[in-house]
Specification:
The protein is mainly alpha-helical. The chain is built from 4 helices and no strands. The protein starts with a helix and ends with a helix.
Length: about 130
Amino acid sequence: MHTLSEIFDVKMMKRTFFISIILIIFGAFAINYIEFNNSYSITEIHKSIWWSFNALVTGGFTDIYNPNSVLGMLLTSLLVLIGMILISVFTATLTSIMVGDNSVESAGSLKLYLEKRINNIEKKLDNLI
């Protein structure tokens, strides 16, 4: 849990998560408004939130609802493109956090190893002289 709390303390992670939630809510209300008169529209808000979440996170590969209007298709395309960017930023930030922790540990152990080797070489040189 400590690592998880550190991850969400990163400013970029918080921002990405916050923007995603706003876009999911916006997308849900927008698709309801745009496709309201369609005969096969999403009439329940929880289904439109789920549709918006899937469009943003999975790239629109859902069988929930395919918009029939041009505006609905544009909204879906926009959510998919923004979702690709947000998921990429989220993943890149998470990766840099995880790799950054390991690289600091690796650098410290490498430094200790090199110091030990140099000390051994110095002792051997002193014995030769």
